[in-house]
Amino acid sequence: MSANPAFVDFCTRVCACVRFRPDHPSIQRELMGHLEDRYDAILEQEKGILLADAQARTVAAMGDPESLGRYLDQMHSPFWGWLQIWLRRAVWLLAAVTIVLALLRLEPLRACLTAPVQHGYVMEYRIENNGSYEILADWRPPSTLRAEDYTFSIERAILARYRRTVGADGEAGDVLSLALTLKAANINPWLRGPDLSWLYARDDLGNRYYASEEIFTTSLPNYVRKTGSAATVTYPFSSYYDVSVSGIDPAAAEVTLIFDRYGENTVFLTIPLKGGAGHG
User: Fold this and answer.
1) Of 205, 165, 199, nearest to 180 (Cα)?
2) Concatenated DSSP letters for 228-274?
3) Where in the chain is the domain with CATH 2.60.40?
4) Would you say which domain of life the source belongs to (predicted)?
5) pTM
6) In this structure, which topology does domain 114-272 adopt according to CATH?
7) Which tens digits make up the pLDDT trace of 43-80?
8) Mind listing the pLDDT tens digit for each residue in 2-41?
């Protein structure tokens, strides 16, 4: 049945008194249903009645539209109506964010499980292409550190011995080189790994292993002990760095990674050089 103009006018006058507009369509549908049911009943009960009279009696039976509208306005409070709408939107938004974060965590989780295979290991390449390198240890140090928004850990460490120039007189000698995969984990998916370009190291003998940025910006000699670091892989919840400490004194028992470019003297991690897998 097509909408009757008299019924539409009645519904419009009722809804004009209801302040919460999002409920107008449902109110109109409900009122129209009542009007049409009553209209059909009148036609069924009183055979031969004029259609205009049946419509007028149907509308009159529904009462005053303004009074009905004010009553429905109390039932459809704008406060509770908007509260329900925003709660539904918040639930949908929370569900969408949860799904996105869950999807983002899949790749970091896979990366964490396969990190010892995937990330970096410049030392392995050097050993394969330079017979002067001899692996002394290959292990995962237990050292971890919580600093600001990150948790730092060593995913893998490779300690090797090789010969190099160790002084200004050009003498060659055995030194150690340490290759690390450093992981910086965080719980914020939009937070990327910190800039560790000024990362340097010290051993327990007091030797300093200069950061790459220090070497680039100063006139340090080629044979200086040095520390190199570069972020190789970055995921929403973790970043991985290839870190190398070269020219380590064979007598050193441990190496500590340090970052204090801005004077905070933050000690990152201490890696023991004795006791690693394959190294007594």
Assistant:
1) 199
2) EEEEEEEETTEEEEEEEEEEE-TT--EEEEEE-TTS--EEEEEEESS
3) 114-272
4) Bacteria
5) 0.55
6) Immunoglobulin-like (2.60.40)
7) 888 888 888 888 888 888 888 999 988 888 888 877 77
8) 568 889 999 999 999 988 888 898 899 999 988 988 898 9
